[in-house]
Predict the 3D structure of the following.
Amino acid sequence: MNEDGMPGKADMNLGYAEDGLPLGADGGGRQPRAGFVALIGRPNVGKSTLMNHIMGMKLAITSRKPQTTRKRIRCVYTEERGQIVFLDTPGIHRPKNKLGEFMTDAALSTLKEADAAVWLVEPVNSIGEREKEIAGLIEKAGVPTVLAVNKCDTVKNNVLPPILEKYGQLADFHKVIAISGKHSIGKEELLCALFSLLPYGEPFYDEETVTEETERSLVSELIREQVLRCLSEEVPHGVAVDIESMKEEKKLYRIDATLYCEKESHKGIIIGKGGETLKKIGTGARIEAEKLLDRKVLLKIWVKVRKDWRDDEKQIRAFGYRK
């Protein structure tokens, strides 16, 4: 038996399939594996995009702005080899406020709790000090990690080998893989590597479960995604979304939401001239919500001010941000 009480290779007369994963004692079927995998990395490396691609549906919001993901999102990927519970985490960065501290702490605590991890990085020749710090945190956590060099489709093939080699020297990784979160490059190799790291065991969730997030939480994030896409500079990072009411009727959902910003001047920017910016945010969010809920949505959005809420722990918790 392994330390976690799960059967090891010595406990069973196992054969191996072409993908390298163990077959049952009679060689007739794979032993299922199940475990938790943390997705970690700096902001904007493509963690949420990768997870959405693996899941085959949009469960985490994305944007070109840093710190899009604010809290851990749990998604459940199930197939014949077993079940991977992906933990998408906020980007690891040097925090400038208490919300930023929460986000970084959430990412690091998730790393310690996982059975395995994927560290996403970008294909750059010069590895910065922050990457070296993250590599140190991974080694300290002691969790087996696959290093995934994302966005490999953006560089020429002859450039990749030296980049992979440089990153591979940062820590003792289980594997170093070139992938593209937007496409299928490296996806199967990544999944195979992750399944090989997980313990044997039955799934934690039924096959129909894809996330623990509630519809209310997902809609809230879809609205915040539109805020990030429609606004620039610092304003969108100071916005929190609260779903005041979400009522399901026969053929539609009625949703009332409030955007909370930190300054009166930001409120005017969010609303825009003649309400145009807020209308744009609402239209984009409604379209995405209808895709998610598979039903018509009537969405109303208000804008209010809560001064400096990102540095107020009580308000941070009130908006649902918990470690």
